[in-house]
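Standup notes, structure subgroup. Blocker cleared on the 3,4-dihydroxyphenylalanine input:
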Amino acid sequence: MAIVDEVVALQSETLAAIEAAADSAALEQVRVAVLGKSGSLTAYLRGMGSVPQEERAEVGKTVNTVRGVVEEALASRKAALDAAELAASMDASAVDVTLPGRVQQMGTRHLINGIIDEISEIFLGLGYSVAKGPEVETEYYNFNALNAPEDHPSRGLADTFYVVDRSNDAHKHVKGESGVLLRTQTSPVQARVMEAQKPPIYIISPGKVYRRDVADPSHLPQFHQIEGLVVDEGITFGDLKGTLEYLCKQIFGEERKTRFRAHYFPFTEPSAEVDVSCGICHGEGCRFCKGTGWLEILGCGMVDPNVYGYAGIDPEKYSGFAFGMGVERIACLKYNVPDLRMLVEGDMRFLRQF
Ligand code: DAH
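Run returned:
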């Protein structure tokens, strides 16, 4: 075969190889094999000297043309392969923006805080404000300033968590030197507010209280109370009744009745416990109300003149009432929860209902 024909055949072989190269590495191999230092086309250029005189011009021209054609084919194939490789790598690392996101689990307000907020709103609407007191309280404010007798059983180490026990100390009655405890009731806030503020006083005070009880369906060692205190001129038991009746209807519904039973608390005189009619049997008597038709919801009374004495308020000029309720108990009565412990166990299936 004439040299020119060989070169033309090389061109078509090379173009076929270029077309068949599957990736840029394979294409580079084709380039080196044809146009590299010892490539097949390069060999024809180098060997021009040995081509017979009469063929030389035509062979030279053909080799150059073939080189141009091959270079062009290499460049266009390389561009195509590069584009395909870029597209493939972009596909491989792509983020699918149409996938749905991961849903964050949202918490909800706990039922206990819900009840505290609900009752606070009711009293804020009546013009009360919210007062705060310490959970680590002195024995003086928790008991003495509330007229609790020295031998009151709840002062005992078996009922109350003491931080500092001064029960054998001669100074135990002195305000600044009494024992320190986890408050057993929110009532000490009454004493603190009366010391700090002159009447008229209209406050509520929600917060945690602690007692040395083992948790069972109706007891928790830590729970919440809401205290209330009103001191003003001309306040009567009628005001107390009206206020608490309004409260019960707001919490439990218009159709619920209330009743006041005489009771004893050291810091109120007279004192009463308030019951609300049972929401399950509507007063007939059932298991929930233990057959009585009534559910006890709070303690209350007219502020004892002795308590005014500790706070330096003139009992001839002012009178007032106080009340205290257990928040967990109200939550359970409102939603027919049979066991206080369900409120603190953190079972989401239970808590999500509120
Ligand atoms: N502190 C009382 C208790 O924990 C509840 C109570 C009763 C509060 C009568 C009062 C009240 O303010 O007047 O059992």
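Discussed briefly. The radius of gyration is 46 Å.
Next: hand off to the docking folks.
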